[in-house]
C-alpha cells in the first residue's frame, strides 16, 4: 500500500505494476473494496488503483488483494483532492466515483467529488477518450452531479435513475459496491451516469 504519498511527486507506477502499458482504471473512494477488487479479479489484463482516505478501509482492501493475489491492483491511502498530483497527465482510461459522500449542505459544495475543481483534476488525469463513471443512491447528489458535469461541458454516454432495472446486459455487467448492495436490497433506486470530457488541448 502507498500511504500518505508526497503530492509534489508523481508516482512512478511502472515500479508498482508488472506491465504499465495496460489500461489504467482508478476508483476514488473505494471503501472496503468490494467493487475494485472484483474488477481487478475480473479483468487481469488491466491495472487498477484504489484511492481511499480511511486507513481501516484501505487495510481491508489490502487484505483482499493479498488473499486473491491481485497483482494488477494497487492501493493508495491518500486524499482525492491530490489525484492530479499522483498520476501523470493523460494516464488513466477510467475513473470511478461510487457512493461518494453527498455533502448535502451548500457550504460544503466544494467537497463533493463532482464539484468543478475535482472535474478539472479528473480531466487532467484521464486520456482524451477516458470515461468517468458515477453511481449513488442519493438523488440530490445525482441531480447536482448531472448539472455540474453538464456545466463543465461533458458528454453523457449513459444516464440511469434506476440502474438495477435497466436492460439485462447492463445489470449483468454492473458490479455492486457494499453500499449499493445495502441500499438496493431495501428497494432504493441506484442512480448512475457515464460521461466523457471534451478533448483537451495540452
Which CATH class is shown? Alpha Beta
- Fourth-tier CATH superfamily name: Vaccinia Virus protein VP39
Cα distance spanning the termini: 32 Å
Count of helical regions: 7
Q: Average pLDDT, to the nearest integer?
A: 95
- Count of all domains: 1
- Class from secondary-structure proportions: alpha/beta
Q: Report the CATH architecture.
A: 3-Layer(aba) Sandwich
Report the count of strand segments.
8
Report the CATH topology name.
Rossmann fold
Helix content: 25-40%
Helix-strand pattern: EEHEHEHEHEHEHHE
Binding site for substrate: 105, 137, 177-180
Keywords: Methyltransferase, S-adenosyl-L-methionine, Transferase, tRNA processing
EC number: 2.1.1.33
InterPro entries: SAM-dependent_MTases_sf, tRNA_(Gua-N-7)_MeTrfase_Trmb, tRNA_methyltr_TrmB_bact
Describe the structure.
With 202 residues, the protein is of the alpha/beta class. It has one domain: Vaccinia Virus protein VP39 (Rossmann fold, 3-Layer(aba) Sandwich). It contains seven helices and eight strands. The protein has an eight-stranded mixed sheet, sandwiched between helices. Strand 2 (24-28), helix 1 (34-42) and strand 3 (47-52) form a beta-alpha-beta unit. The longest helix is centred in the first third of the chain and has 14 residues, at 55-68. Belongs to the class I-like SAM-binding methyltransferase superfamily. TrmB family. Its EC number is 2.1.1.33. This is tRNA (guanine-N(7)-)-methyltransferase.
